[in-house]
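Record 1 of the preview.
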Amino acid sequence: MTTYSARGFGYWSLKVFAVALALFGLVMAAGGLWLVTLGGSWYYLPAGLGMLASGILLFLLRVHGVWLYWLVFVATLAWAFWEVGFEPWPLVPRLVAPAVIALLTLLFIPTLRRHSN
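->
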């Protein structure tokens, strides 16, 4: 049985982060689907689905959610460099938020390990 003290700040922070990540992924996937129907980039649909799945896994306290998000992040890096090349300013809006999220996922690894079965 999990005690209240085991469900401290790290646990609840992870739950909030996971829900936010999943919701952001859902919105991104929906927008990506719309973009695909308009003949636009296919990046946003699979990236959004990956973020949604990562958020769900993190909510379920599975460390695989971290690694799935990092897979999405590596794909985002590849897409960003393919789309704009090595021009710094066009890369900033494509990479800053995903990089911050990637770093945040790493901060939750100790919490995930502490609560793993």
